[in-house]
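Submission sheet (multi-component)
Chains listed below:
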Amino acid sequence: AQKVTQAQTEISVVEKEDVTLDCVYETRDTTYYLFWYKQPPSGELVFLIRRNSFDEQNEISGRYSWNFQKSTSSFNFTITASQVVDSAVYFCALNLYNTDKLIFGTGTRLQVFP
Amino acid sequence: GAGVSQSPRYKVTKRGQDVALRCDPISGHVSLYWYRQALGQGPEFLTYFNYEAQQDKSGLPNDRFSAERPEGSISTLTIQRTEQRDSAMYRCASSPAERGGPDTQYFGPGTRLTVL
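Outcome: structure written.
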């Protein structure tokens, strides 16, 4: 069975702190894709990143970075020097190569206080 | 360019009524998906179209739910005889890929459905 677990329901930090959001996935497939989406208070779902299972290089985009480790089936997301605008619910999702659906975790609500 | 649009953004209806939710994908995107998101949960897959063909409807909860995309662009998700348990955010997404799978899905703003 395929599954995505985001064990952290809610995280609160003060502005400028670094924060890591955890994502653990389960699949027996060897080819798959992992995603992160952001859902700000306005409610839309915004794409952040996509990684395939053959590319374990970490990725950095500004204050955002992602750590993909197949050995632990994890795809964690770190925000460096958090800002109030980072406050949102963040979803991790899994897409198997031969299917058409995203399997989402339950999300982590991040609150950044000034 | 314009993103995925959905209408209405909010829909309040009485139990037993039919509702139709509309999705207009990003221009040129071949694949279109419908998801349902309950409060405090992640989106859950309902159905998927490749052009006008409905390729997968395994996520539709029962036969009160149906979807169509007759001309391969705009899609309508219809819920007949609505029940209170149908209350949720209904999200549409599109991707440029000719088949589902690893291509990135871009989501619309969603339709918040409330069944009284």
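Remark: The mean pLDDT of chain B is 93.
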